[in-house]
Amino acid sequence: MAAKLVEIGKFDSLKQKVILEPNSKNINQKAITLSLALGVVLMLIKFFAYFLTNSTAILTDASESVVNVAAAAFALYSIYISNRPKDRNHPYGHGKIEFFSSGLEGTMIILAGLLMIIPAVYSFLEKSPITEINNGIWLVLITMFINGILGYYLISVGNRNDSIALKADGKHLLVDSFSSAALVVGLLLVKWTGQSYIDGVLALILAVFIIYNGVKILRKSVSGLMDELDEDTFKTLLEILNNNRKESWIDVHNLRVQKYGADIHVDCHLTLPYYLSLEDAHTQVGLFEDMVESNYPFEVEVFIHSDPCIPECCHYCQVKNCPVRKEEFTGIKKWTRNRILSNAKHFVE
């Protein structure tokens, strides 16, 4: 669901606040429920195609569909849990369960790929003819198109609502669609050449491809659970800060940003003129928090530690007619990655 821009009352320099439409979480649940239902149907179609053709490559593709169904079931549960509000025992919400969901999906994909190698190798030792190959190709084509459309839909919804579980499931289905396309090409080669060993070779290639994509999904999940800096999230936040900078915000440092599902937690040190009263400093902190929150279509929690400026800050401080300036203003120091992540004011390079 696309975010809406709504005008809010004047709050100093803030003019707009971005919010999600209220049913976005329901859309996530409906999307993953659709994935689960179609996954069961497609799994049955693929196993039917295997029993028709006796193709090891189709068995490999069908076995991965079992993973699709199991992963979609857990993703449905994780989205249900992640939608719960914060509570005393979960002060940051329940969003991180989506990392567990994508991690489980990645692990299951890897295990499925490893198990798929066994029948592929066995097919070289115990050769069996492939039957009704035309019907098998048509059935695989049907599943390929449905998986491709569904995968694209899940990624689209996941990107709009920043759902990690939806994006992981969608990418998995797109991979499944690509592997089905390769499977169709392989079956056509078997049909045209009459060489049944191509089926076993294709099964091995698909197994390796599946394992590789499982590792990628698992890696993304682990990075989220370990609170690794999400580069896309950080770049977006850095752009927001530079575009909305106020002259009294002398510098921002020791910034940390973490994702909890769709929600984001930000904490940082904000350097302010040391002569501001506690009330004025609190007002500036509030403006900073509201500026950050107003630029996101989902919940953002901002914690700020205010620092007093020191004389070494004067040469890049933008405050006009400062009554205590010790050095002439020489130019703005752009808030860059190194400066904003460093636990030091910006006069320390």
TrEMBL record:
GO terms for cellular component: plasma membrane. InterPro entries: Cation_efflux (IPR002524), Cation_efflux_CTD (IPR027470), Cation_efflux_CTD_sf (IPR036837), Cation_efflux_TM (IPR058533), Cation_efflux_TMD_sf (IPR027469), CDF_Transporter (IPR050291). It holds the Pfam family ZT_dimer. GO terms for biological process: intracellular zinc ion homeostasis. It is found in: Membrane. The keyword Transport applies. The chain crosses the membrane at residues 31-53, 65-82, 103-125, 137-155, 173-190, 196-215. Keywords: Membrane, Transmembrane, Transmembrane helix, Transport. The keyword NAD does not apply. This is Cation diffusion facilitator family transporter. The lineage of its organism: Bacteria, Pseudomonadati, Bacteroidota, Cytophagia, Cytophagales.
